[in-house]
Design a protein that fits this description.
about 50 residues; mainly alpha
Length: about 50
């Protein structure tokens, strides 16, 4: 019984870590996309002044 409890706890912690890694990857991807969009907007503004 003690071993089953330990195994269940380890599985839960592993699932929690997997969830955190997925959320972290999503947040990092979102931040990168925001910076790419901002960079594109600055590029478009610089090119718009040339006209």
């Amino acid at each position: 019984m003690r071993n089953l409890c330990k195994q269940k706890s380890t599985l839960w912690l592993s699932h929690l870590c997997h969830w955190r890694c997925t959320v972290s990857a999503g947040v990092i991807t979102g931040i990168v996309l925001v910076f790419l969009l901002l960079g594109y907007l600055v590029y478009a503004l610089i090119n718009a002044e040339a006209f």
